[in-house]
Amino acid sequence: MGAGRELGGYLSLMEIFGISMMKIMIFLHGTAIMHRNGLNRTREERVKQVLDGEESLYDFAAYIPVGNVVRKLQAWKQQGAEIVYLSSHKKDEDVEKDKVVLRNYGFPDGRVFFRHGGERYNETAERVLPDILIEDDCESIGGEKDMTYPHIKPELKVRIKSIVVKEFGGIDHLPDDISALRRC
After folding, report:
1. How many Å apart are CA 167 and CA 63, to the nearest integer?
2. Which of 8, 55, 136, 172 has its CB surrounded by the most CB atoms within 10 Å?
3. The pLDDT of residue 3 is above 60
4. Where are the alpha helices (H) located in the chain, listed in sequence order?
């Protein structure tokens, strides 16, 4: 029996077809996209806006990319990576707003995953089983307790590379080369 079956029935492309494509999951809110009034603000000012309940936080259809995230994700996709997204939303209609934002700003095509029912972020990531999970440190909402990777099952953590960035700090500093990204 393959490793995928031992880990709850999940089979990778590698196990099924012998294909080795890196799957990169990036958290959307605070990592890849942000509220529109965060534009031209420092990272620290953006965090304060969240803490203060700034009005544009709730206008999800008007969210914008953080830094040069689109260029970075396109570079990884051109090297063969599969890009998937993790939304903070739980409702289909809110996830649809995320998809519109991604399309409007030219993000690479990729599935947008979200929590169903009482599912937690770690359970969604465990279901998808990315090779790399990029998320922010959740500074404005409680830190590690609200993050994804720290709560992933230990037996699955060994299969997922975690990259944590500062909330609203973007991913511009990460390597363009996906093989170097795996070593971050």
Report:
1. 15
2. 136
3. no
4. 3-6, 13-17, 43-51, 69-78, 92-104, 121-128, 154-157, 178-181
Domains of the chain: 22-181 (3.40.50)
Q: Please tell me the least confidently modeled range out of 15-24, 62-71, 129-138, 169-178.
A: 15-24
CA 66 to CA 164: how far, in whole Å?
A: 15
Residue 136 phi/psi, 5-degree rounding, is: -90, 170
Confidence (pLDDT) at 139 = 86
Distance between start and end Cα atoms, the chain: 32
Q: Average pLDDT, stretch 24-49?
A: 97
Compare 7 and 43 and report the one with higher pLDDT.
43
Token couple for 45: 């000012």
Question: And the tokens for 24?
Answer: 């990169």
The stretch 44-71 carries a mean pLDDT of 96
- The set of residues, in sequence order, having a beta carbon less than 8 Å from that of 58 and lying 6+ positions away, is none
Ramachandran region, residue 129 (left: φ > 0; alpha: ψ -120 to 50; beta: rest): left
